[in-house]
Amino acid sequence: MTEPNAAPAGRWADLKTRVLSAIAMVAVGFVEIWLGGWAFTALIILLTGVMIWELASMTAPSRRRSPMTLAAAASASLLAALVLKSEVAALFLIVPTIMLILTPRRDRRLAGAYALAIMLAGFGLVDLRVAGGTSVILWLVAVVVASDVLGYFAGRMLGGPKFWPRVSPKKTWSGTIAGWVGAALVGGGLVVFAGASWVLIPVSALVAFAGQMGDIAESWVKRRAGVKDASQLIPGHGGVLDRFDALIGAVVAVKALGLFAPVSALLGG
Length: 269
Hints:
This protein has one domain (8-266). 76% of the residues lie in helices and 3% in strands. The protein is built from 11 helices and 2 strands. The protein has helices at residues 8-11, 15-35, 37-59, 65-84, 89-93, 95-102, 108-158, 173-194, 200-225, 240-256, 260-266; strands at residues 162-164, 168-172. Helix 2 (15-35) packs across helix 3 (37-59). The chain is globular and about 50 Å long.
């Protein structure tokens, strides 16, 4: 988000590119969610590997081969964890964390912790899709997208006090609160049009807040690494981490707080 006193033309300069990229991502994501099974799993494994590659590249830019090795290890570890689906799976999910901590890089412990969040989110997305079907995943994605979109426009149009300037200097309270409202509207829409329980409204806002914390966590990593974007893979959005950081926070929260079963019930699943 740019500063509220930025010139109008500059404020929206990247909007067209962002919209076109977003449409393409939404189309691919919807198809993969609808297909489910190994098609969805393969996409998540690929995205997880790319995000670990971006994280490794940011924290150790001089080590050009190391990020690719870490990406391959992350994808293989996630696949193993998904196939095993037991207590042993947790051992595979921490492989990238261990590798990041043991290799020379900036903020090794921070990078390791964030790598674990990425791995947990990847595992959680596949697990949620298998156990809850399309409805839970679509709700989760809709909450994150609505929060991000309303937060983006409100932050740029209204500006105002910063939410956490030390960690994420561009995030504003106006954008943060607008994100909660957007998520609540998603929950309200499901209550009105799909017969979901009204409790889904505050739960959606809570998950949106977790997503915003995921966004801020990635901003912190980038700020420590001295980079603006995780990579340049997605036009107008930066890297895969820049686009999916909020989803990481949301998925980890849903799994950590044990919200899957309640949400599934609230959705009528």
